[in-house]
């Protein structure tokens, strides 16, 4: 049943993004920033944690999940390092995902011939 919940939560997040792009004049980069920021804000308000408990990867893999990871990292960093944790906590919490994105992106650029859209 957890797969179904992940599919529903992740699907709803994607539907919200698509509706934002279709119903407003927001372009994809603006929606991406909005999603990451909303993930941070909803985590700070304690609203996103229940979504993560219900939806698992359906809530943590999309971009609001990245904001969730940043916020959780900042909270942990503050508890461990005080004020310095504000600056280091989010980076420490998301460094694995960021590193994977860079490594896989670089690998794909080597294996294939990337071209700009015309």
UniProtKB/TrEMBL annotation:
Keyword Transmembrane: yes
InterPro entries, per the entry: Spore_V_AE, SpoVA
Membrane-traversing stretches: 6-24, 31-48, 54-71, 83-112
Domain of life from the UniProt record: Bacteria
Keywords, ordered alphabetically: Membrane, Transmembrane, Transmembrane helix
UniProt-recorded name of the protein: Stage V sporulation protein AE
Lineage start: Bacteria, Bacillati, Bacillota, Clostridia, Peptostreptococcales
């Amino acid at each position: 049943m957890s797969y179904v919940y992940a599919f529903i939560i992740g699907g709803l997040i994607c539907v919200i993004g698509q509706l934002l792009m279709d119903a407003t004049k927001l372009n994809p980069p603006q929606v991406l920033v909005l999603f990451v920021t909303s993930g941070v804000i909803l985590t700070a308000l304690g609203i996103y944690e229940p979504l993560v408990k219900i939806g698992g990867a359906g809530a943590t893999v999309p971009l609001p999940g990245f904001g969730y990871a940043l916020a959780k990292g900042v909270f942990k960093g503050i508890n461990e390092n005080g004020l310095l944790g504000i600056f280091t906590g989010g980076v420490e919490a998301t460094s694995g995902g960021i590193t994977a994105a860079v490594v896989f992106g670089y690998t794909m650029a080597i294996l294939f011939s990337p071209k700009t859209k015309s």
